[in-house]
């Protein structure tokens, strides 16, 4: 029979060869695991705030052991179960305040939708940049038959035409990743409706609430947890995976070094593909925020009635009644 491990300390073990009593409590049934992690999330949140150097010291990189340990702490906890429960606690507290004070919830809706609109309207300009680069490539390559394009005066930078051509994929990714929630707020996503249009107003809002919490949010959180380690595997070595335990991650500290991915698909092609991994996380973060914004808005519009539909909603003025009608249909 396996010997039972003793516990010491409530949140953190204070004796070698033991585990914390909270960790031992979590080893019971599923409910003990959930509520134990929930309680531990408060400790982890305040501990992280009180000891920022443990996970932010790497920002002033000097290649020291402390820098490497703080970087590994940051990488491990950024996609960990502990971070998920801290996020859940913060979201639950803000939601509880919002359910108590609906004005506060409307404020969160306006802020979250404002972030989506602001970022989307800004990075929609990447479409214009794509067009300008494509015109520049065609004009210079066909008219002047140049193989390299240089931008800037004095301290300009030069890249092969194939680099500029492949960079168009990055600008396209900017639009897809950073304008998705903006399009959602504007009601621009095409939807296939089988039931929604035939039910009552309150049922519609209930469906919206259910979809945002049961489908939208969980998928985004799982994507974050795996996308986080996917990004860091293209930035540092040794590689760290979602299944690695903290002690295994910490043992890699002496060998940690930066190894930013700069390999393109062609010899002179675009070589900053690590940016696509960062964009994935930016996209997921925006989707998570929009899931909460959509849930809060649906709840408030359901509670306040049809008169509240579209309240504080910042929609673009297309300046064309027919285009506005098409947007409403979609």
UniProtKB/TrEMBL annotation:
Query: Domain Tripartite ATP-independent periplasmic transporters DctQ component, which positions?
Result: 160-229
On the tree of life, the source organism's domain of life is Bacteria
Q: Which UniProt keywords apply?
A: Cell inner membrane, Cell membrane, Membrane, Transmembrane, Transmembrane helix, Transport
Q: Transmembrane helix as a keyword? A: yes
| Topology of this chain in the membrane | Multi-pass membrane protein
One matching Pfam family: DctQ
> How would you summarize the oligomeric state and partners of this protein?
The complex comprises the extracytoplasmic solute receptor protein and the two transmembrane proteins.
Q: What does this protein do?
A: Part of the tripartite ATP-independent periplasmic (TRAP) transport system.
State what protein this is by name. Answer: TRAP transporter small permease protein
From the broadest rank down, the organism's phylogenetic lineage runs: Bacteria, Pseudomonadati, Pseudomonadota, Alphaproteobacteria, Rhodobacterales
